[in-house]
Write a structure and sequence with these properties.
Blueprint: H1 11-33, H2 40-47, H3 51-55, H4 61-83, H5 93-104, H6 109-124, H7 126-154, E1 156-158, H8 162-183, H9 186-202, E2 203-205
Antiparallel strand pairs: 1-2
Helix pairs in contact: 1-2, 1-4, 4-7, 5-9, 6-7, 6-8, 7-8, 8-9
Length: 214
């Protein structure tokens, strides 16, 4: 039997783990000091990685942030799926869905500020703007899938395309989140009322199927 050992080949998994840990470190770093003030060295230091490890996974701080937004959106929508699984049993599924989601997505002031920072950064830098547009499209697609799942399980019919509704919800949430930074307690009520108006205008309850006896 040959004594020559074959090197283990697990770089894809190792790289995926490293990327996730870098995203964890980035989330903490951006929340602590903001997007603009955070450096790649800060992220690497917090995560215990070298710059080489960073650049093996992300081309820039902008790309890191875009990946972080996508990951957090996917996680949040996964939690929402779990939370809304039985919403069809509620007397008013639309209102119940809004209330449960608002409880789940209670405003994170630090994260809202970081998102606002990156949006301003993107407005001044075309490459970052293109990256932000791609990220918004990805997160919109995730939201479309979540809306379609919810409509199916809750017996709700959409009266507008799911993609249009997803973009409207995203824009509303982003705008109200900024307003909440300085708008006081009334801002939270504003988001609930605005979402209810939007969703009631974009949905209708499917008529129940008549029973054979009727």
């Amino acid at each position: 039997m040959s004594t020559t050992s074959t090197p283990r080949r697990r770089p894809p998994r190792r790289r995926a783990v490293t990327a996730e840990l870098l995203l964890d470190a980035a989330l903490e770093t951006f929340a602590d000091v903001g997007f603009a003030a955070a450096t790649i060295e800060d992220v690497c230091g917090r995560g215990g990685f070298t710059r080489g490890a960073f650049y093996s996974n992300f081309a820039s701080k902008d790309e890191l942030f875009a990946a972080l937004v996508t990951r957090e959106c996917r996680r949040d929508l996964g939690r929402a799926d779990d939370l809304l699984g039985d919403v069809s049993a509620e007397p008013d599924p639309v209102a119940a869905a809004v209330d449960r989601c608002l409880e789940l997505f209670r405003q994170d002031r630090a994260w809202t500020l970081v998102l606002a920072e990156f949006t301003l950064h993107a407005a001044r830098h075309p490459a970052a703007a293109a990256l932000l547009a791609e990220t918004r499209e990805r997160t919109c697609n995730l939201l479309v899938e979540a809306i379609e799942r919810l409509a199916g399980t809750a017996g709700i019919a959409l009266t507008v395309p799911a993609a249009d509704l997803a973009r409207a919800i995203s824009a509303l949430h982003e705008g109200v989140s900024l307003h909440q930074l300085t708008g006081g307690p009334a801002a939270g009520r504003l988001e609930r009322e605005s979402l209810l108006l939007l969703l009631r205008g974009a949905t209708s309850t499917r008529p129940s199927t008549p029973s054979p006896e009727s």
